[in-house]
Structures are given as C-alpha cells and as structure tokens.
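RECORD TYPE: inverse folding
INPUT: structure tokens
STRUCTURE:
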C-alpha cells in the first residue's frame, strides 16, 4: 500500500462528501487487513485507507477503525484537503481488527487508531516568522499591515501608536494572522475548508499531529487525544467529551464566527488541556466548559514565546465555566488562567478552582478587558501578577464589572503585595456590584458589600502532599469549623446551565460542588452565618460534607453509588461504624449478609451454611452431605448403596441369611408342586 503524494494536511473537512444510501451500513478500516479483497465489508477484507471508507460512507453509516497509523494521502480516494467526512457518519476508532481473537474488541487505549498529517515525518522542525507582528517589540505597530489590522480589530489598544507592540498584541497576531506560522512544520499546520456537515461523530482517535477544520458544521469528538494538533472551528457547533489536548504551540481549539449572523457553540466537558500557548481561543463564540482541567498552559519552556492565557475570549463571546480546575498556567501579558477582552462579552464562572496561575502583567488568574463577569463559588489561591491583581484584575479605561459572590481569594500576590487590592484589582468604580459573601485576604470593607470577611479560610492542605502549590494533589477543601463554611448565600448560587446532574433542568441552582458533592450541606460543627434557609452553601469551590471514610465523596453518595454499604440503613457507611454483629469483620452488619439456611449464622461464618441444624449428630458432616444426619456416622457406611446410611435403619441381613430364606422358599414351592401333581393324577384316574 503506497501513499500517493507527500504534501497534504490532516484536516477533517466536514461536509466535503455528500451522498445518500438506502440503508445504514457498517464499514471496516484496518491498515493491516489480510485481504486479499479490501471492500470494507469485514475486518479481514477491510479498507486499508480511511479515505476509502469515507468515500462510500453515507448519513447513518458507522465506520469501525482498527489500530494503526492513517494518513490522508492514502488510497485512490484522496480529497484535496485531507480526510473529508460525509454527513451523519459515526467513526469509531480503537478496535483490535483483523487477526485478533476478537476483532470487534474495542479499547482505544490499547488499540490506538492514529490520524496523522506529518507526511514527511519532519514536523518537529521550527518555522521562522517572516514578520515582526508575531513577536513583541518596543515600537508601536508592526510591519505587516493586514496582520496589524486584524489584531486591532480584536483589541484596538494595539493600534494606539503611542504604545509598544506588546506581548498581548503579538499573542493575538500569532492566532489571527496567517503570516505567523505554526511552531511546527507545514504538514500539521495547514487548514482546509469544509461546509455544512451535520451530525458527525468521531470517537476513540488519536490526532498526532493532525489539524482539524470544521466550517458551518455540527460535530462531536468523544474520547479523543489531540497531540500537537489544533482544532479550527468557524460557524460550527462542536462537542468535545472526555478528550485530552496535549502540546500545541498556539492553541488547542480556536472557535470563530463564520459571519456576523452565525452562531458558534462550543461545548467542552470532562477534558484535559495541557502544554498549549492558549488552550481555547474564542472570538464571537459561545463556549461552555464543565468538569475540565487546564494545567500548565502558556509556559514558555513548553510553548516557545507564545505564552497566552489558558482561555482567551474576545469580542462578542460568551464564556461559561463550571466545576473546572485552572492549575499552574502562565501568560506573558494578561490573565494566566483566563483573559476576556472586547465588547458585548459575558463571563460566568462557578464552582471552579484557580491555583498558581501567573501573568507578567495584570490578573494572575483572570483579566477582564471589557464586558461583564459573574463569579460564583470559586476559589483563587496562590496566583500572582507582575503588575496588578494577583487573582483578578480589570483593564484601565474599560467598563468591566465583576460580580464576585460566594468565593474565596487568598494568598494571591502582585507587585504591591497580598492585600485586599492585590487579591482583586478593579480599575473602575465598584458601586454597581460590590462583592458579596466572599472571603478576601486583607479585607478592609472599602469595597463594600455584605457577608464579606478576611478570616483565614482554613484549607485542608493547599500545597498537597508534594508541598508544591499548583499541582494535582493540592487540597483546597475547607476544614469543618472554617469561617467560610455555611457562610455564603443560597440566593447567589449559580444556575445549573451545564446541567451537571443531567436532569434537563438548567434553571435550578447548581447541584454539585467541584468534587461532585452536594452544593448545599449543613456542617453541624459550624454555626450558620450565611443567607438563606439551611442548609447554607459554603464559600468557595468546595462544600464541607460528611466524609467518614476520607475518600473525598459525600457519605450519602458513597451509599447511593454502592461504594459503601449502609445496612441496616442509617445514613452512615458501615465501615465507619463499630458494628456489634460482624463475625467476618468486613464492616457489614451480619443482619445484611446472606444466611441461606436461616439459622442466624451468616454463610461466611457458618460451618454448615445450608444446614439449619448445623451437624446435629456431631460427626463433622453437614446435613446436606450426611447420609444419616440424625445419627453419628463419620464413616458414612451404606452397605446397599441406596444413599441412606446404614446407621439410619436396623441390622441388614447377611448373605447367609438371604440364602436360607431363598432355600426355604424353594422347598415350599417344590412341595406344593408335588402335591398338585398328586391330586391331579388321582382325579384323572
């Protein structure tokens, strides 16, 4: 099998192919299929090239792909822009394929289906930028007029020609301008075009490296791994579920509007982003993130000079983040964790944790350059800024109100220290929306609001077992008795817009905290100082709940999910109780374990689990195995082999006795016969 040409990208050109077949069909792709035919109808007659399956696949079809390395320039059906996906296909990678004991076995971690556009195997080579727009410099503007205009459309400050072309302007140029090349070689960085593909699902693939483009489409990526690969979305609705994005120089996902009238909706859940210049860049898009982790993005040693915020939202974007972690991200300019800039912008953060994020300028965790932000039940700890706002900052001259509710800002630092305004630097008046029910280090009351304080929140172990802030073992949960427990406002809990409990109700108060425990729980060891009808919500991302076994989960959920046993039910996991009846010492009350013979002894502790009399004859044989359970007979003698032990009846006749009986019978019979013949002969004569 030969690839036909060497210069192609691995773009997923959604909508490139359109066809309709009468019936739904399953097609098979296996680079190692034995053949000899390769018509895609079974595993060993599978297509060797993914393009061949895409050429025949139609709406409603499923394409199964075995482990192997797949290039877009393979086979006779090579589209001009790489892999082209037809409408409505579901493509499942990670199968064992031809030659396996079970070719249908599916495990994407074991059987890697890899899509790659590195045709020349040279994409580790860096590319030199041809314009100074791509890098910060001390003079205003840059030498590429088109690129400069594109940047200034996003952030007009870059065209204030009294100011230098700073890191933020260069960062925008590297994303907005085609003149700024990718850090990696041309095979993995080109973008193709597609249109109007609907209902496409890709599940269980590794993109290594393989840039992806979707235009005016609807696509779902599930359980995928993007390694040194970028996703470009324009006018597209996309879902990324249980996927990971690892190492790209510029961004992992870029989501734009295709036209002013287009609506772009990007939904991300249960995903990991690490080692990117910027993980997500959104322009005039709606981005919804839940249960995701942003870890070590924007770091220069990993991303060259392209250190941007973990999430960047500009112009008319809507960004909503629930139950997510931002750890150890860094930016050259603004907002290590997230930066929001432009007009008609909305940011909503709930139940999220920001730890050890950094920026050289303003807003160590979050920077707002316009629009408005609503922050509910978030924890900001150990973030830092080179200038102002160790945790949060807004831009000077911009109306960027931040509504800060039910949150904790602690141990964040900027160039002025760690006081109140080093935690939260707001460049304009705070009269519209003062913080409420929030713990802010150095609190003086000057910011106004109700329910706020500056008392130590009493975290369990904020730098974790490794004693390093910003790693995955940090424990920013609160100790029972913390002044932040039962101290926030129930009315200020964010709505469940991402439907964390999957009940279809997105208007209810968010039901879970960051650890997936109940968002409202009463700590009996702490007085209620918050607002509302008990249980009162805690400040910050985590709720203090009963967790007797120390596994980080609410005991009630342990019981509900079957992790712990509660029998008889009293709301306390059995492993946390001193049980009076636990003969096998497995932390389960004996009343709740199996007793097959109903003799009051559970089977684990019953020498005769199916004998309610429990070897009543004392011969060490249970009744269900004893051929005479009422009489002592350890030898189980059964002379006539009828299953009834000899001990259960009288003496059994011996062989000689049987013989005597038989002889007697024979003699009697013989005598009777002789008598009969004698009578007959007399009668006849």
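DESIGNED SEQUENCE:
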């Amino acid at each position: 099998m030969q690839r036909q040409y060497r210069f192609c990208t691995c773009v997923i050109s959604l909508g490139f192919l359109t066809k309709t077949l009468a019936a739904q069909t399953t097609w098979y792709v296996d680079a190692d299929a034995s053949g000899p035919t390769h018509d895609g109808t079974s595993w060993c007659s599978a297509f060797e090239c993914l393009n061949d399956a895409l050429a025949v696949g139609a709406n409603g079809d499923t394409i199964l792909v075995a482990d192997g390395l797949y290039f877009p320039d393979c086979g006779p059906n090579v589209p001009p822009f790489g892999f082209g996906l037809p409408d409505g296909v579901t493509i499942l990678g990670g199968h064992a394929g031809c030659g396996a004991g079970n070719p249908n076995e599916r495990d994407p971690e074991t059987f890697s289906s890899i899509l790659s556009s590195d045709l020349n195997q040279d994409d580790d080579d860096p590319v030199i930028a041809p314009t100074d727009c791509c890098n910060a410099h001390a003079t205003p503007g840059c030498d590429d007029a088109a690129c400069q205009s594109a940047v200034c459309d996003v952030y007009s400050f870059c065209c204030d020609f009294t100011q230098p072309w700073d890191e933020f302007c260069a960062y925008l140029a590297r994303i907005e301008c085609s003149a700024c090349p990718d850090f990696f070689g041309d095979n993995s960085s080109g973008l193709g075009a597609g249109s109007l593909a609907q209902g496409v699902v890709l599940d269980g693939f590794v993109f290594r490296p393989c840039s992806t483009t979707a235009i005016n489409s609807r696509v779902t990526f599930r359980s995928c791994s993007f390694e040194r690969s970028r996703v470009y979305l324009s006018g597209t609705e996309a879902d990324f579920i249980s996927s990971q994005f690892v190492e790209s120089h510029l961004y992992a996902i870029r989501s734009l509007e295709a036209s002013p009238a287009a609506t772009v909706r990007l939904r991300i859940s249960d995903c990991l982003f690490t080692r990117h210049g910027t993980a997500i860049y959104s322009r005039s898009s709606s981005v919804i993130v839940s249960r995701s982790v942003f870890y070590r993005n924007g770091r220069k040693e990993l991303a060259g000079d392209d250190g941007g915020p973990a999430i960047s939202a500009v112009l008319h974007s809507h960004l909503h983040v629930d139950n997510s972690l931002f750890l150890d991200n860094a930016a050259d300019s603004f907002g290590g964790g997230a930066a929001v800039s432009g007009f008609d912008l909305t940011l909503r953060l709930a139940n999220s944790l920001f730890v050890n994020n950094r920026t050289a300028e303003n807003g160590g965790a979050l920077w707002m350059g316009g629009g408005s932000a609503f922050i509910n039940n978030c924890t900001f700890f150990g973030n830092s800024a080179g200038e102002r706002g160790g945790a949060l900052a807004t831009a000077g001259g911009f109306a960027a109100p931040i509504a800060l509710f039910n949150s904790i800002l602690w141990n964040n630092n900027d160039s002025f220290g760690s006081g109140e305004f080093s935690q939260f630097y707001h460049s304009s008046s705070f009269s519209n929306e003062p913080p409420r029910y929030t713990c802010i280090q150095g609190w003086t009351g000057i910011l106004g609001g109700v329910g706020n304080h500056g008392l130590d929140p009493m975290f369990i172990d904020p730098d974790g077992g490794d004693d390093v802030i910003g790693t995955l073992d940090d424990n920013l949960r609160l100790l029972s008795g913390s002044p932040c427990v039962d101290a926030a406002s129930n009315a200020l809990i964010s709505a469940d817009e991402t439907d964390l409990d999957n009940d279809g109700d997105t208007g209810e108060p968010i039901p879970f905290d960051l650890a997936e425990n109940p968002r409202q729980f009463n700590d009996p060891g702490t007085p209620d100082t918050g607002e509302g009808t008990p249980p009162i919500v805690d400040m910050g991302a985590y709720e203090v709940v009963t967790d007797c076994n120390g596994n980080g989960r609410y005991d009630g959920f342990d019981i509900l999910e079957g992790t712990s046993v509660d029998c008889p039910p009293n709301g306390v996991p059995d492993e946390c109780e001193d049980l009076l009846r636990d003969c096998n010492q497995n932390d389960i009350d004996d009343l709740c374990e199996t007793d097959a013979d109903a003799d009051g002894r559970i089977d684990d502790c019953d020498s005769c689990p199916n004998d309610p009399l429990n070897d009543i004859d004392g011969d060490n044989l249970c009744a269900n195995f004893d051929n005479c359970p009422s009489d002592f007979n350890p030898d189980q003698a059964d002379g006539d082999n009828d299953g009834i032990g000899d001990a259960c009846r009288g003496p059994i006749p011996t062989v000689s006795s049987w013989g005597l009986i038989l002889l007697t019978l024979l003699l009697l019979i013989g005598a009777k016969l002789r008598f009969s013949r004698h009578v007959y002969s007399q009668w006849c004569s």
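NOTES: Residues 132-176 form one domain.
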